[in-house]
Write a structure and sequence with these properties.
With 319 residues, the protein is mainly beta. It contains 2 helices and 18 strands. The chain has a domain of 157 residues: lipopolysaccharide transport protein A fold, CATH 2.60.450.10. It has an 18-stranded antiparallel beta sheet that branches.
């Protein structure tokens, strides 16, 4: 029973399944968006290897170099290799390097992230890369992120896109229009039209944004949030998922603003609903009301209410 957790103070496990699905969705989305941020985490020296280069007269900006292969290595201030970028072919024209069949790998402390795109334009003066066509990011942890194009700024430590972003992991798909991740601020955003689908039957929608802050250990779904599963539907203006900074386990889930939980034809309404991970209980706050459908109420009464149907007394056994 998923939605029942927000229908009454819960002392048992009836609402645990759905809450876990909401929390897992937030964690997976956060981690999936984070693969963007880790790509621009490292600064430092850039080593460029140009293979089979051909120079020819260009425009007033200078010579244009055309190469059959091109590689760039990014190193830390201590000379440690942190990332590697290569292209099947490249043209250097002025401050821009136009790349075809781009591939890159970022070497993290515990995992690696691989990136590919059809094309890319690297602006050496601005330290920005525009990734164009079939942008795909794959992490060792099993996340795949795809989008049509994205912009990466070394100076801002930020990667962003205005196109559709798709994040996939086994058992879950998240889609949103537009996204951003900043590695310095440790924040990530899916901007609008956010939809999360989790197997076997849970779906979360919101108008957006979905904001994730790693420093604050929090993920927030904004505007017309709707969570649906086999047990019912939860509606709210805002849904906040908080995590314990040490264990990364659920600390609290808070639904705020026009909170409505529907189960069958009956529902509850309140201004706020809070679930505590430590106590396993949910509370309705702010003028809570329970509206029970007359048909469901009749069925409930016929079943004998909470005590069950009345039974005929069994005959005494006199031996």
């Amino acid at each position: 029973m998923g939605m029942a957790a927000f229908q009454m103070e819960n002392k048992g496990g009836s609402g645990i399944a759905m809450r876990k699905r909401i929390v897992w969705a937030a964690v997976v989305i956060a981690a999936g968006i984070a693969v963007w941020a880790c790509r621009d985490r490292y600064g430092g020296k850039m080593d460029i290897d140009r293979t089979t280069a051909e120079e020819r007269p260009g425009d007033a900006a200078g010579l244009e170099q055309k190469m059959l292969s091109f590689t760039v290595d990014g190193r830390s201030s201590k000379g440690v290799k942190q990332w590697h970028l290569e292209a099947g072919s490249a043209k250097i024209k002025g401050n821009e390097i136009h790349l075809n069949e781009l591939g890159a790998v970022v070497l993290g402390d515990d995992a690696a992230v691989n990136l590919t795109s059809d094309k890319g334009i690297y602006d050496r003066d601005e330290g920005e890369v525009e990734l164009i066509g079939s942008v795909t990011v794959v992490s060792d942890e099993g996340f795949t992120l795809t989008t049509d194009r994205a912009n990466w700024s070394q100076a801002a430590k930020e990667i962003s896109t205005d196109t559709i972003v798709r994040i996939e992991r086994e058992g879950m798909t998240a889609v949103g229009k537009g996204g951003m991740a900043n590695s310095d601020e440790r924040k990530a955003v899916l901007k609008e039209s956010v939809m999360v689908i989790m197997e076997p039957d849970t779906k979360i929608n919101c108008d957006g944004p979905l904001e994730v802050s790693y420093n604050d250990n929090i993920a927030v779904f904004y505007n017309n949030v709707m969570v649906e599963d086999e047990d019912g539907t939860l509606l709210a203006d805002k849904l906040t998922v908080e995590f314990d900074p040490e264990t990364q386990e659920l600390a609290q889930v808070t639904a705020e603003g026009n909170v409505k939980v529907k189960r069958g034809k009956s529902y509850t309404m309140s201004e706020k609903a809070i679930y505590s991970g430590s106590t396993g209980r949910a509370k309705l706050l702010g003028n809570p009301r329970v509206i029970i459908d007359s048909g469901e109420l009749a069925e409930f009464e016929e079943s004998g209410g909470l005590m069950g149907p009345e039974k005929e007394p069994e005959p005494e056994n006199n031996g």
